[in-house]
Amino acid sequence: MPELPEAERARALIADRGLGRVIAAVEDGDSYVCRPHAPGELAAALVGRRLTSANRIGKTLWLETDRGGPDLGLHLGMAGRIVIDEEPHERWDRFALTFDDGGRLALRDKRRLGRAVLEPDLSRLGPDAALATRAEFRAGVGRGAGPIKARIMDQAVIAGVGNLLADEILWQARIDPRRPANQLSGPELDALRRAVRAAVRHALREGGAHTGALNPHRERDGHCPRCGAPLSRARIAGRTTYWCPAEQR
DNA sequence: AGCATTGTTTCACA
DNA sequence: TTGTGAAACAATGC
């Protein structure tokens, strides 16, 4: 599930129900999810601290702590979500903070590809996909000979677009996902930027990256919900990609 | 049984 | 050197 909209939802949840609470204990025993930290390292750094802010760029979250404490970086990976004050889940809670009021914030993640780290490295993230300026977007997205889909999914170029959102955006903008990025015109890049913002807004409102108009048709033998043409399917940028060969040029 | 999967990182290669 | 694509990572669902 997690792309930018899900991450923003998690951030808002933490901002609403996590801030101001004091960490009494930390479940950091999953050394894969907490890598490169050893078990106990996050606990030692965080116990006694109060959560003071919840922030996000793209799909990466980080929480600030009081009195000069470290930032706690969280990433939802392929299947993670944040739950607060819910019954603990034995298998799928890969990391958790217990608060001194008895409550609990957990990273619940079936696939175990989520992350919890101290002082996350944000230096390799581009601007948030929904906030990139027109100049940033043109300069970053319009560069390189690789397919445009790979470009908008590159978190160092713009942060937050994953596979489902990328297909939706390109379909809305009527651009062929295989087009070399540096072959798109300025107006096309501007249209793509508008499609990114619209798709993010829509997904935020509707509850996730899977709520786009194209999504229900992203399957073998799917058809374009606009024109009815059979959708094409191929592996682009390492991910399964669906597009309308009649409309996307 | 085998394959696919909404994410990221690393590595081989051009 | 820079960029690109494939594979690895873990675990689950079809």
Please give the structural blueprint.
Elements: H1 4-17, E1 23-27, H2 41-46, E2 51-57, E3 60-65, E4 72-75, E5 80-84, E6 93-99, E7 104-109, E8 115-118, H3 134-141, H4 148-153, H5 163-173, H6 186-206, E9 232-236, E10 239-243
Antiparallel strand pairs: 1-6, 2-3, 3-4, 4-8, 5-7, 6-7, 9-10
The chain binds a DNA duplex (14 and 14 nucleotides) through helix 5.
Short note summarizing the structure:
This protein is 27% helix and 22% strand. By secondary structure, it is α+β, with helices and mostly antiparallel strands.
Describe the structure.
There is one protein chain. This protein folds into 2 domains: 4-118, Alpha-Beta Barrel (N-terminal domain of MutM-like DNA repair proteins); 134-243, Helicase, Ruva Protein, domain 3. The protein contains 6 helices and 10 strands, in the order αβαβββββββααααββ. The chain has helices spanning 4-17, 41-46, 134-141, 148-153, 163-173, 186-206, and strands spanning 23-27, 51-57, 60-65, 72-75, 80-84, 93-99, 104-109, 115-118, 232-236, 239-243. The strands form 3 sheets. Strands 1-6-7-5 form a 4-stranded antiparallel beta sheet. Strands 2-3-4-8 form a 4-stranded antiparallel beta sheet. Strands 9-10 form a two-stranded antiparallel sheet. A hairpin with a 2-residue loop joins strand 9 and strand 10. Helix 3 (134-141) packs across helix 6 (186-206). The model has no long low-confidence stretch (mean pLDDT 93). It binds a DNA duplex (14 and 14 nucleotides) through helix 5.
